Amino acid sequence: MPGRFSREDRRRLLQEARRAVSEALAGRPAVPVEPEGVLGLRAGAFVSFHRHGELRGCIGHPDGDQPLAAVVARCAVAAATGDPRFPPVTPDELEDCAIEVSVLGPIEPVQDAADIIVGRHGLIVEQGRHRGLLLPQVAREQGWNRDTFLAQTCAKAGLPGDAWKRGAKILKFEAEVFGDTDAQEGEA
After folding, report:
1. Residue 23 located in a structural domain
2. Share of the chain residues as helix, strand and coil, in percent rounded to the nearest 5
3. Which of 62, 82, 105 finishes a domain?
4. Residue 130 backbone phi and psi in degrees, to 5
5. Same domain, residue pair 85 and 146
6. Do residues 125 and 168 touch, judged by C-beta distance below 8 A?
7. Which of 8, 76, 134, 135 sits a CA distance of 20 to 30 A from 56?
8. Where does the pLDDT of residue 118 fall: very low under 50, low under 70, confident under 90, or very high at 90 and above?
9. Residue 20 lies inside a defined structural domain of this protein
10. Residue 186 domain-assigned (yes or no)
C-alpha cells in the first residue's frame, strides 16, 4: 500500500486536518471541502497529534465508507479535542503539534497469525461487543513481536491478552502513514 499518495496529496490531507482543527478551536463551524481527487477517495483513516515527540491525541474511523477529506477533518478535530486520554489541544499548542495521518487499506480477516507482518499490518481484534485497533506503526515503535502485538490489541479491546487464541476475530490492514515532516521532504 505504501506510495499511493503523492507529496502533494499528503500535503493537502495534512493541510485539511490542521485547517479543521484551527476552525474548531476558534469556535467556527466546519467548512466542507469539495471531495475531489484524493480528497474524495473512500477510505478509513486515523489522525494523531504529537507535541514534543509525545502523543497528544489519536482518533480514527476505520471504515472506508466516507470521503477521505471528511474523515481526516473529523478525526483531526476529535483527536485534538476529544481523545479522552488527553486534555484538549489549545490554540497556543496547535502550532507546536505535529500531525500524522494513517490512511487505511482494505481490512481483511486473518486465518493464521503467522500471516501478520509486524510493522506492515495494523490489527483489529473483535469479540462480542469488544473491539480494539492498533495501527501498524505502534508495534514497530514499541519493538513488539507478533504475539505481543496481538496481546496488546486484545488489551486495547478490553479482552484478555490471549483472546486471539481463544476465538476472538483477528483482522489486518495496511496503512499509508505520513506526517507534517514527510509532506515537506524534498521541498526547499
Report:
1. yes
2. 35, 25, 35
3. 105
4. -95, 135
5. no
6. yes
7. 8
8. very high
9. yes
10. no
Per-residue pLDDT averaged across 91-99, rounded? 93
| Cα 100 from Cα 85, distance rounded (Å) | 18
Single pTM value for the model:
0.90
How many whole angstroms separate alpha carbon 119 and alpha carbon 138?
Answer: 8
Strands, E assignment, the chain: 45-51, 54-61, 97-104, 108-109, 122-127, 130-134, 169-173, 175-179
Kindly state whether residue 113 falls inside one of the protein's structural domains: yes
Contacts of 80 (CB under 8 A, 6+ apart): 21, 24, 25, 49, 56, 57, 88, 89, 94, 97
- The count of structural domains within the chain is 2
| Angle made by CA atoms 68, 96, 11, in degrees to the nearest 5 | 30
Residue 128 lies in domain: 108-173
Q: Is 188 exposed, middle or buried (0-12, 13-18, 19+ CB in 10 A)?
A: exposed
For residue range 1-25, what is the model confidence (pLDDT) as tens digits? 446 899 999 999 999 999 999 999 9
125 close to 107: Cβ distance less than 8 angstroms: no
State the pLDDT at residue 187.
39
Q: DSSP letter at 41?
A: -
Domain boundary (105, 140, 159) is at 105
Looking at residue 45, what is its pLDDT?
97
CA distance 186 to 188: 6
What strand order describes the sheet that includes 169-173?
108-109, 169-173, 122-127, 130-134
User: Are 14 and 30 found together in one domain?
Assistant: yes
